[in-house]
Amino acid sequence: MIELNKLIYTYAERADIDVEDLVDLDFLQRLDFACASRLGHVIELLIRAFGLCRRHGEKTATVRIFSEAYAQNSRLPQGLCPLIAPDYRNMIDDDKLMEMMLDD
User: Fold this and answer.
1) Domain count of the fold of the chain
2) Could you give the CA distance from residue 90 to residue 79 in angstroms, rounded to a whole number?
């Protein structure tokens, strides 16, 4: 999780977006699960989320923004977003999640 944390802060700094209130262990675990532990998917999500922040004139990233970015990146229904689902680890198998994200 240390690498994931560093990655988030690096991209946030470049985008001039505050993530201090967002990043905690729960968020890191959810982000890792949502991106199937693939850093490339994490980076894509960070770029989209921070881009949405800038487009909306927000200086602080929120779970809502990340959820919106995830829905756009994954093409999955909003209710299947591991970033906001209460029982995200049991809602869907992570291999199935990746398969759904990559399905054209």
Assistant:
1) 1
2) 13
Please report, in tens digits, the pLDDT of each residue of the chain (104 residues total).
899 999 999 999 999 999 999 999 999 999 999 898 899 999 999 999 999 999 999 999 999 999 999 988 887 776 678 898 888 877 766 676 666 666 54
d(CA 94, CA 18): 29
Residue 51 amino acid letter: G
Domain limits at 33? 2-102
pTM, rounded to two decimals: 0.84
Neighbours of 74 (CB within 10 A): 21
Token pair of 73 as six digits: 């990146």
